[in-house]
TrEMBL record:
Family: Belongs to the Rho GDI family.
Official protein name in the record: Uncharacterized protein
InterPro entries linked to this entry: Ig_E-set, Rho_GDI, RhoGDI_dom_sf
Lineage, broadest ranks: Eukaryota, Metazoa, Chordata, Craniata, Vertebrata
Principal location class: cytoplasm
Amino acid sequence: MADKDGIKPCEEEVEDETDLNYKAPEKKSLQEIQELDKDDESLIKYKQALLGSLPATVDPSVSNVQVIKMALICEEAPGPITMDLTGNVTALKDVAFVLKEGMLYKILICFKETHMVGSYGPRAEPYEFFTPAEEAPKGMLVRGGYHMKSLFTDDDKCEHLAWEWNLNIKKEWKE
């Protein structure tokens, strides 16, 4: 798809255009979903396999999603690079995490669901999501400190947690 000047839009612009055609389905509680088709035994078993058993009561004061931690997973790291996101996340603004240049790393996000969010149903154990492996930038020009602004959202663009932190790209783990 090209615009009138013959320049192709970047991937983000194309993605935004396709998002305009998406209409979110009507929101239903887990109880409503399990009540649907309650006469069909095979669907009841299928929903039980997907959703598990419903919690007896859900505290409405507890947020939908509780983000527990974020970690940079790097096998060569001398120690864990982990952020506890259950407490005061504003304190992370003053902490700098170190990542050696050129290292392969993955980002791990641990979160808990209390209600249904997308394809993640509520359960007692936290979910763990790993990003694909990426290589940290390397070279003299990219070494230094980076201020990160992280945001945990769902497909409905609902913000569950926002926090800021610092990442230092260094030649060695400890300098």
